[in-house]
Amino acid sequence: MSEAVGAAGRGARPPRVFISYAHESDAHGEVVRDFWAFLRECGIEATLDVTAAERRQDWPLWMAEQVRTADHVLVVASTAYRERAEGRSASDAGRGVQWEARLIRDAYYSDQYALDRFVPVVLPGQSAEGVPDFLAPNSTTVYYVKAFTVAGAELLLRFLTDQPGWIEPPLGAMPLLTQHSLATSDIAAHQKVKAPGPPIGFIGRREDVAALLAALRDSQIPLIVVKGMGGMGKTALAEETVRIVAAEALFSTIFWHSTQAEKFVGDGVVRTEVAEYSFEALLDDLLRHSRLTWSPDAPTAVKEKIVGDWLADHDNRVLIVLDNLETVRDRDALVARLMDILGWGKILVTSRYSVLRARAFTLDLEGLSPDDAITFLQRTAERQNNRNLISAGPGLLARIRDVAGRAPLAMQLISGQMDYQPVEQVLRVIEEAGFNDLSYEFYSFLFQRTWEELDGAARKVLIAMRHFDGRPTAGAILATADMTDNELYPAIAKLGQRSMLAMTTGSETRYSLHPLTKNFINTDIVSRWK
Question: Which residues contact 393 (CB under 8 A, 6 or more apart)?
Answer without folding.
Answer: none
